[in-house]
Write a structure and sequence with these properties.
With about 325 residues, the chain is mainly alpha-helical. About 45% of the residues lie in helices and about 5% in strands. The protein has helices at about 15-20, 20-35, 45-50, 60-75, 95, 125-130, 155-170, 175-185, 195, 210-225, 235-250, 250-260, 270-280, 305-315; strands at about 40, 80, 85-90. The protein starts with 14 loop residues before the first helix and ends with a helix.
Length: about 325
């Protein structure tokens, strides 16, 4: 599930980051929104393109792949594969965003579980800190920047700051929690309260891990505000969706979902699309157009071709 992330003003003037291309810098910011609390996200360039650049026709998955290579060379991202599926991790995300990996387990495998063929070795922590957008926030009560080991405050002051932050979070108005949850749904392209109501997951819980092909399809549906839950699909249903993607491609499935969508009764689960997807004709299959019989008395042809009508027209000339 996308997260709300903040951008510091120092990001725009940080020289190592400013040397990257504009598209690479924009992509890097976009990755923050889709990384979980462990700074991980799916790394297929087609999925990333659908999430960060859904409406940019001048940028395809190959271009996004090149931008990811540029970010990796700068130490902003690390690319790795687990069981043939690509993933990303942002090593510097925790330096400028407040992450809580201990509270929310990641549903994505970590880089230690995969391999990175042909990629540069993982940078040391000091290199990741040096490549970060900005230094740690000196504010004693940071919102998006956790304390670092270089903080000169005493353990007592740090403990008091942590308690104040926890108490402030607990005492926050309950409407703020609803706002955060609603905002995250809006970023994902929700269709409003009617579509978001059936969701039972906490606002900070990541979405279920789907096969890469299904993730790409979900991103395209989300971009058209056709957001549904996918966690109720069992293994056989996911396999059927993958087979339908292989058979028809993403485009026909998205068009069928758009055509079957009803604003007065929006679907809540991905199973709602299966019926229309199963009904799609096989590629290359031409539908036969019915040709009714000729309505003239005694004629044996059809409305499109009738021997008697042709003979009568010829005689009348």
């Amino acid at each position: 599930m996308p997260r709300i992330r903040s951008v510091k003003p120092e990001f725009w003037t940080h020289f190592p980051t400013a040397r990257l291309s504009r598209d690479a810098r924009l992509l890097y910011i976009g990755l923050w929104n889709f990384a979980d609390e462990h700074a991980r996200l799916a790394g297929d360039p087609r999925f990333v393109k659908g999430q960060v650049f859904p409406y940019d026709d001048d940028l395809d998955a190959t271009g996004v792949d090149a931008l990811l290579d540029e970010l990796e060379a700068a130490g902003k991202v690390e690319r790795y594969n687990v069981d043939g599926a690509p993933f990303l991790v942002l090593p510097g995300l925790g330096q400028h965003q407040r992450l809580e990996p201990g509270k929310v387990p990641s549903r994505l495998p970590g880089p230690e579980q995969g391999h990175r063929p042909g990629r540069p070795a993982r940078r040391a922590d000091s290199s990741a800190r040096d490549s970060d957008e900005s230094p740690p926030d000196p504010d004693p009560h940071p919102v998006d920047n956790p304390k670092t080991e270089h903080d000169e405050a005493s353990a007592q002051v740090r403990g008091q700051s942590a308690r104040r932050a926890d108490e402030s979070a607990r005492d926050a108005d309950s409407s703020a929690l609803l706002y955060v949850a609603g905002s995250m749904e809006h970023v994902a392209g929700s269709m409003g309260a009617a579509a978001a109501a059936p969701r039972e997951r906490a606002h900070d819980e990541p979405p279920p891990l789907l096969p890469p092909a299904v993730e790409i399809l979900r991103a395209q549906l989300d971009a058209r505000k056709l957001t549904v839950r996918w966690d109720k699909l069992d293994a056989s249903a996911l396999a059927e969706v993958e087979a339908l993607i292989d058979l028809h491609g993403d485009g026909p499935l998205v068009r069928a979902a758009v055509q079957s969508y009803r604003p007065d009764s929006p679907p809540a689960f991905a199973q709602a699309w299966l019926k229309s997807w199963r009904a799609l004709p096989a590629p290359g299959h031409l539908l036969r157009v019915a040709d009714p019989a000729c309505t003239e008395p005694g004629h044996t042809g059809t409305t499109r071709y009738c021997v008697q009508c042709a003979a009568e027209q010829k005689a009348a000339r």
